[in-house]
Amino acid sequence: MTELSLAHGFVFADLYSAEGLARLDVKFRAGLPEELRAHLDAGRKAPPEGKDESALLIELAPHVEDFVAELFGIRAEMQALAAAHHKLAPIFTCKRLFVQRQALKAHKPEAAESFDGAALQGELEMLFGEPLSEAAFARHVGEWEKDTAANARALDLALRYGAWATLSTAGRAKHASGVLFKAPRKLDPMNLVPLDTIERHGAAMVELDEHHRRRREGFKLTDPGTDLIGALDQTHYCIFCHHQGKDSCAKGLKERDGSYKKSAFGVTLAGCPLEEKISEMHELKAGGVPLGALAMIVVDNPMAAATGHRICNDCMKACIYQKQDPVDIPQAETRTLKDILALPWGFEIYGLLTRWNPLNLRTPMAKPDSGKKVMIVGLGPAGFTLAHYLLNDGHAVVGVDGLKIEPLPADISGRKPDGEPVPFRPIRDVKELYESLDNRAMAGFGGVAEYGITVRWDKNFLKLIRLLLERRAHFSMFGGVRLGGTLTLEQVFDLGFDHVAMCLGAGKPTILELPNALAPGVRMASDFLMALQLTGAAKSDSIANLQLRLPAVVIGGGLTAIDTA
Predict the structure, then answer these.
(1) Burial of residue 430, with CB atoms counted within 10 A of its CB: 0-12 exposed, 13-18 middle, 19 or more buried
(2) Confidence of residue 330 (pLDDT cuts 50, 70, 90)
(3) Stated pTM of the model
(4) Contact 414, 470 (CB under 8 A)
């Protein structure tokens, strides 16, 4: 099936109109249990806060998931995705309750090194009646623990194998790609990255071990992120501390006086700048409600495709785990989005949740036309995020950017190259929108996200963000327009705009407090990357040249510095 056939008499255009979304909301509410519908209606009139809000949203999320699955006709696919979550759940129960709480307490690392892992595996496989895998280990241990007296010998074997696999050098190597036999590392702030010291040409140097290196040739994605089992490993590691009102990942880690704590490096641990409902998202994801988990993310972070893995980690810094590995929240967030995008009509589902989301008690759906017009100057992360919120408030938005913005095909963007709106079709398979980063032409949309971040983040997500906006009837954008040059502020207001939003922060270079930082020969790394990208010199088949005199010294160790190096 390639044509989208929505349930309940809705058509695709309804998902992009305020009137259609209002009817959709009425239909959703009508299908709720009476008591829950009453709670939802009361919550919209006077939104609860803290634990009360979390409880309401978590109760509501499975109903959102079922309704959306029915609407798009993907109930079977949605059930299969949820079943995959439930199938993996015993691994994480076994990890937490058996491997970490029992095996690692019963046997110390020195003892684990002395165990014969191969012999233990052989004995366990005889008892299993199948090859040893993480799923088999968790399943059989779960059964044995129902009668510990009758299975004492089998559980002892499992305890010893669990300790060997987790603590010994050979065991860690054997299970390096798994999740069951892994314990959180204790953190040493002064030794966060494991480095080896070597001597080369008479000089002492440090380097990453081979396991942590990623070879970079061209612009192909070097870190595609974790898979489902890796994400669930993190969501089950989370202790869902929103139940205690201590979800510091979202709200910041506080001192007794209410001020924010600081890390060993003096970084303020304020948590997620968006106050995303992270702990609630983890509880839903771990519980096998994947679409509900994405809906929870989108409440505070509708532009989730532009955050998460390889983009931000303020949430991890403020995680409740401060003395051991924090929960890898960005990985879990991005995987949650990817799992829904991979469903039939997954992009359309994500897009719908940015315009209509029952978990968003304060703005559950896009509002009708307000009659107000806003110009946004700069279409980087700040600009395109602001555009989304203004559109949902019913305002007309025109975005301009100094960079040239290449047109997308009109049948998916809903815009001709001159900006004239035309009908567009739904996207069944999100892969249709993806390109190899080695061959992808820069489209100009996204500001620093387009020109600064390279092969560790999938820039195909920029196209998703762009389509979320460009398909909206009250949005237009124009590249090659500079305020103060192409247009003056007076001309903007003469054109009938009510407001101008300046979203140009990332365009201002960060000047290091170093003597002679702007002396001849010193360049900002962001300037260098922009020049590299604009000339096309970074592409392997490019005929462009970007000449610079070596050797060069790169000061700093952030993303931009790494890319520059």
Answers:
(1) buried
(2) very high
(3) 0.91
(4) yes
